[in-house]
Every structure is written in structure tokens, then in C-alpha cells.
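Subject: complex prediction, re-run

Hi both,

The earlier run crashed halfway through, so I resubmitted it with identical inputs.
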Amino acid sequence: MHIPDGILPVWLWASGFLLMACLLAFSLYRLRGMDMKKKIPLLGVLSAVMLVAMTLEIIPIAYHLNLSVATGILLGPSLGFVAAVIVNLMLAFLGHGGITVIGLNTILLGAEAMLGHTFFYILTDKLSTYWRASLATVLALLLVSLLLITIVGISHVDPQAYRHERGHDAELERGHDAAVPSSLATFAIVVLSLGVIGWIIEGAITGAVIRFISQVRPDLLAHTLHKDTCRTDPSRCAP
Amino acid sequence: MIDVARVDYWAANGSGPFHRASVLSKLLFLAFVVAAAVASRDPYPLVAGTGMLIVLAALAGLPWAVIGALSLYAAVFALLYAVSLRGDGWTYALLLLKAVTPAYAVGMVIVSTPYPRIFSFLSAFLPEILAAGLFMTYRTLFLLLDMMDNFGTAIRLRGGFSPGNIVKNSRNVAKGIGGLLVRAVERSTRLYAVMVVRGYNGKMAETTVGAIGLNDWLPVGTGIAVLTTVILWR
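This time it finished cleanly. Structure:
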């Protein structure tokens, strides 16, 4: 979800920037031994692939592909997070998302890449590549959607505060509010019910993409591309 | 998503007062408008602010109607967020304008400033990997969009697209994206080799912050006017 500017409270989007900066610093720290000159073209290309995938909209449910999990699987969690920062900066300057919420949007997109990568390697090798990638995608998107609902929940500004400034009668307003059910639940239902269709489609496409890559260019999944896996599990790295 | 190529064309080929202004002044303009949207507690000053922006865009020769359509994209997400609030029509109008006003300002900036100039400015403040990654992403995006367009044409001509058949379409789209990804990686490898031959040393971005000049009064003045309107209204 691309949250526009001016909606969320300042403390929340400022915290988003702070957290994004911390995660970015940590990612860059983990990448310090990597040959950056070689990674920058690849980072740019995969970030561009994410942006191109976002042009593919599934019209009936207004869902567009992200390919963030596929990017996470191919680039690794640290470089995947850097790709999320780049994509959100580009989106903000394409009029596709807010400037102030670059931090929060990056945390959401980066979490998809990092969680997707983690789930892909946690899931047992007994599953085929297709199912590992698909399940990793669905699980990552489910958790990120819950994170989104949490952010929206803790961000709620009080409409009553606006009305007081307009000098409305407080008693009338309280009566009005009592009649309106809490709509965070409605929001959660809308996001989760529409989201589940999107997750399944994204899971199926990510699974098929990763399977295709494993057949055509298996070296991309052998993780010579990023150092994180090489450092933690050298057996996965090609010599 | 917006037509990046068209936006790039407007940005590179205009000669109006907004095009002549520096990146610094246009980003200051953006910051003032975003600050106005954040500070506003009432939709009316934002209506006035958006009106000011539309008039300015029209007078500056910018595609004001297209920018308006572009800014409505933010409205869709604002409405989705509004669903989660216990508000009335007034609150929804405020949320909508808080989203649309900065989106309109972003539109004005991007149709009058080529992306490489924006990235050059940002690269003065961002880590090298991000600055270079932004340039590389921008450079590759057009190539990939073109490749994707060709793929879309090919899939239709060869009967790979069946309206209503999501399973078949998803399978074919996945193969297309997979092929695109593999070609993109190969392209990046070749690109890296070419860059090394040309003397690439890990630094790509030219860092240019610039300064405020005579051509910058319009964006800076407009941004201050929008913010002042909101502050005075409070």
C-alpha cells in the first residue's frame, strides 16, 4: 500500500524514517565486504524489475505485483532492503507514493524482501522450488499486511479533534460517533480479504518466476550474488 | 503507474519558468507544500493551495490537467485509509486534499525536472550505493519497460492472453517476467563489463546541490504562499 503525504501523524512517519535509516545502516554494514562495483548494476536492474512489475495491475482487485520477495530471494535480505529503499524513492518521484512516508513504505516493502528470503531458506528442501517460493511469498505478504494494519491502527488521528476546532457541538458529535462502529476492523477485513487474492496470485507468479530462473540460470539461486548467505552457509555458494 | 517516458519528455523539453528554476528551489517548494498538507486541519486552505498550484501550472506551461489526473492516484490510497477512520464527509475531504495537494506539487516538479538532475541533487546526501543505484534503476527502467511492452504484444499475438483466465494469464506472465529478469541480469553483467572498460571506479553520481538564483522566485514563492495560507487559516 502506498500511503500518501499529510495523512499520518508526524511522529509516526518520522519514526518510519528513523527506523528505515537504522535498517539501511545495518544492511550497508552487512554488505561492507561486498564488491559494490559489481553489485550496483545488478541492484539497479532488479529494482527496475520491481518497478516494471508494479505496472502489471490485476484490475478487478486493484492489486499490482511487487516481486519484492523474488528480489529478496535473488539479492538477499541486506541488498533486498537497499533495493526497497531505491524503489520507494523512485515511486515517490513518480507520483506513486508519498514523500513523508518513504520510510514507512520502505519498511513494508523491505520487510517483504527480507521475510521472503528468510522463509525461502527456512522452508524444507523437500518442497519443490515453486512451492518454497510461493509459500514464502504468501507468508511474507500476510505478515506485512498485518504490519500495515498495525501501522494504520496506531496512526489513527482523532476526527473529534478536528470537529472541536470547527466548534461543533460535542454532545451531538459523541452521539454521532457512538453510532459509527470502529472501522479499523472494516479496514482490516477489506485489506485481508482483497489481499488474500493478491497474495495467491503474487505467490503463484513468484513461484513460477523462481522456478523458471532455477531452470534457466540456477547460479542466480546459488547465491554467489550476495554475501549474506555465503557468510552464513558457504555450502550454498558456488565455488 | 504513470507514463515515465512522457514525463521525461516534458521534463527535458520545457522552457517555462518552472523548468528554468533550480532543483533546490523546486524541492524547497515541495517541502513547503508537504508541510502545508501536514499542518492543515481544515480542507479550505488546501482547496485554495491546490487552486494556486493549478493556476501556476497552467501559467507556467505545465500539463496541468495531466498532473491533476496523476495526483488523483494518491486520492485512491487516501480513500482506502479513510475507510479505517471514524470520520464524516468533512474528515474525508480533509484526508483527500492532504493527499492530493502534495501529489500535485510532486507532479509539477517531475514534469519540469529531468530525473538525473533530481538524483544528482539527492546523491549529495545519500550513501553512494543508493545514489548510484537510483541512476542505474532509472537507466534500466526504460529498457525494461520497452522489453515488457514487446512481451505484452508478443503474448497477445501468440494467443497467450485469455481474458478471464487468470491461471493461464498468470502462468504466461510469470514466464515473461522470469525471462525479463534473466535478460536483465545478463544485461547488468554486460553493463558492468562495459563500465569497467570505461573506467568505472564505484562512483557514478555527479553531486550537484546548486544554489538559489533569480529563476527560483516562482517555486519558492508559491510554496511559501501555500504554507502561509494554511498557517494563517489556523
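Chain B has a mean pLDDT of 83.

- K.
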